[in-house]
């Protein structure tokens, strides 16, 4: 049996079988900013805190600038943004930088990929999401 569950918020438990909860459930939802321009700012900040070899940093900065242009234009170019996000992910992965800065950089890449919808799926797959 396959379930297709849409958007959910709060404590969600998808289980097969019985579940007993003692003491209640509590959770906090931390949503990523929906503004893709803000996500690019967060990506830049996270990359600035990451020690990258100079050649890798230059390639990534170039792609991030193109990503920003694609996203912040009056009519965002999602296919170009998806291509650039995939290249950023490949560059960082091949340099081992995602391992070193997994939290902040990877989290922002995931948020951008999710903003792109199905165009971001290759990035999510590359990041194991």
How would you sum up this structure, described in words?
Helices cover 57% and strands 0% of the residues. By secondary structure, it is mainly α. Helix 1 (36-48) runs antiparallel to helix 2, helix 1 runs antiparallel to helix 5 (102-115) and helix 2 (54-72) runs antiparallel to helix 3 (78-94). The longest helix has 19 residues, at 54-72. It is globular and about 55 Å long. The two termini are 22 Å apart.
As a percent range, the share of helical residues equals 55-70%
| Dominant shape | globular
Parts with pLDDT < 50 across at least 5 consecutive residues = none
* Mean pLDDT across every amino acid position: 82
Characterize the largest beta sheet: strand count, sense, and whether it forms a barrel. none
What's the number of extended β-strand segments? 0
- H/E element string? HHHHHH
Report the portion of residues in β strands.
Answer: under 5%
Distance between the termini: 22 Å
Structural class: mainly alpha
Give the radius of gyration.
Answer: 17 Å
Number of helices: 6
Question: What is this entry, summarized?
Answer:
This protein is mainly α and 129 residues long. It is built from 6 helices and no strands.
Secondary structure topology:
Blueprint: H1 36-48, H2 54-72, H3 78-94, H4 97-100, H5 102-115, H6 121-126
Helix pairs in contact: 1-2, 1-5, 2-3
Keywords for this entry:
about 130 residues; mainly alpha; about 55% helix
